Structure formats: C-alpha cells, structure tokens
Amino acid sequence: MSFVKVRKPSEDIAELPTTQAEIIEAINDSEVKRDIEVELTLEKNIEGFPDSGSLPAKVRFVHPEALLIVIPPVGATSQAVAENALTSASAKIKSQDGSVPESSNRLISKSFFEGDLGHVLQVENDEVGIRARKFMRINHEVIAKTIIPNERPGREPTEVTFRTVDIGGNGALLSCKKGSGLDIGSFFELHISDRKFPGYGIDYTTVEKQPHNNNAAVFEGQIVRSFPHQDKPDNDCFGFEFGFNDPFVEMQMNDQISKYCMEIKLKENQLNSEREKNARLGGKFKKKVNRFK
C-alpha cells in the first residue's frame, strides 16, 4: 500500500484582508482551514477572558504580514468581548508539533468575535515560516489492538494490545509489552475501541472482510519509529502513521481526529478554569458555561 503524503499549507499571497467580512471570507476559503493547532498565551489580562494559562486555538489563514488565528467559542471563551478588545495585547504562540516555530511575543493588530468561528485575532507574522502542515497531538490513552499472523504453519495468530501515549491527526504513539515482534516498517491494521473516536464502527482498510469489526475504528498503517518506553522498561513505544489510499478520506479523517483532540484539550482547559475559580471563590462560584457532554 502506498501512503498519500500529508498536504502542505499554502501561504496565501493574496492581499491581506482588512474588514471583518474579508477576514471571515479569507478564513473560510483558505487551504489552511483544516487547521494548524496551536496554544496561545495572552500577555495581558482582558476582561471576559481567562486571566491565566494557554488557550487552544487554530491558525486559519497564513499571510507574509499576518496570521489569522481563531479561538473557538467554547467554555471560558464562549462569550463575546468588544471589537478590538485584544488589540495591542501581545500573544505567545506555540504548536506542540513544531508546525509553527516558537518565537517571542507577537502583537495582536485586530480582534473581533464571530458567533460560529469564535474570537478572531490578526497577529503579526514576523516572517514566521510555516512548515509542513501538522495536526494537534495530545497525551491521551485509548486501547487499541492488532492481530499479527504467525509465520509458522498451524500456529494461531498473536493479538497485540496497545495503549496510546499520545494521538493526533496523522498517527499515534503506541505502547505495548516487549516481544511483540513489531519493528519499523511493520504494516498492520489498528483497531481503536474508543466509541468517541472518529470512524468508530467503520473499516478504513483496503481489504474487504466479512464480517468486519463493528466495535472499533479500523485503520491501516505503518510503524515509522521505535524506541523503549522511558517510564515502563518492559514496554516498547512505536510511532504509528495512519495510511489512506484515498486523498479525500485522508484529509477528512485527519481533520476529524484533530477535532477529536481539540475537544479533549478544550474540555481539559475548561475543567482547569473551573477548578481555579472554585479554589479562588469557593461557594460563590456559579458555573455559567455549558459543560461538555
């Protein structure tokens, strides 16, 4: 099976949008709309915004002069603030996967709230070189399995159980007991049993099976990295890359898995914000946000 390589974002060399309508249109039309996941930290307290910690956000448009960044309207950032309330504040942008190089604080030159998008920020680019498009990765554990055929005639195949160390739009870091027989280049089907995982109950492999597993999301893929587990000496870690023959399915699933990761990150951010307010205000704190289901 040949893997379809992940696309790279185009740097939109169109004229930099200026009005709110132009900015929204640029975001919706941009090839980057499948998101570059980042964490954004404001260096100035803004009324109506969380006053500490980083916020999950997305780079939605790339221009040589500016980046358009969106903070989704979820939890602590679900309320609108005045237009340009964040203007002149500085922000530190960090991506976990290295797609946006970490640098010094950047000035926010424009900000507004749009109901569907959330908080839209125009941030000075400072000649940031956006590298190959990556997807958000989070530390998250789900159970996954695969069946390894036995090369010896008459022997039963081996079932290998994994736990994910982290997971992202284009693959996962898997952990399993030593002696699995897997190594770099090993190609196999990965069955992910989390009911909330994108594609649960769907078989994305190229080989038709009767019956197929309806209790998992089934992906083909290949091990591209292998190293010992630092915290568990009796375990190995494998970098597993999802593989798709259909470019449309690849982009669709990359996006859905990245969204799955973002929702988990947003939930963690909201829970941390609530704990902080409970600790600071005690019984006076009233939750005014819709909790994640």
Q: Any key phrases for this structure?
A:
single chain, 293 residues, alpha+beta, Thrombin, subunit H, 2 domains, six-stranded antiparallel beta barrel, six-stranded antiparallel β-barrel, 2 helices, 15% helix, 33% strand, disordered N terminus
Write structural notes for this entry.
It contains 2 helices and 13 strands, in the order αβββββββββββββα. The chain is elongated, with a radius of gyration of 21 Å. It has a 6-stranded antiparallel β-barrel. It is of the alpha+beta class and 293 residues long. Helix content is 15%, strand content 33%. A hairpin with a 6-residue loop joins strand 12 and strand 13.
CATH class of the largest domain: Mainly Beta
Going across the biggest sheet, name each strand in turn. 1-2-3-6-5-4
**Rg, alpha carbons:** 21 Å
- Look at the structure and give the mean pLDDT: 75
Contiguous helical run count: 2
- Unreliable spans are 1-13, 129-134
Q: Which shape, going by the Cα principal axes?
A: elongated
Identify the CATH architecture of the largest domain: Beta Barrel
Give the termini separation. 38 Å
Sheet/helix structural class: alpha+beta
Strand content: 25-35%
Q: Report the order of strands and helices.
A: HEEEEEEEEEEEEEH
Number of domains: 2
Helical percentage: 10-25%
For the biggest sheet, the summary is: 6 strands, antiparallel, barrel
Extended strand count:
13
CATH topology group of the largest domain: Thrombin, subunit H
List the helices and strands and how they pair.
Layout lengths: L19 H10 L6 E7 L12 E8 L3 E6 L18 E5 L11 E9 L3 E7 L12 E3 L3 E6 L9 E11 L2 E7 L9 E6 L24 E12 L6 E9 L3 H35 L12
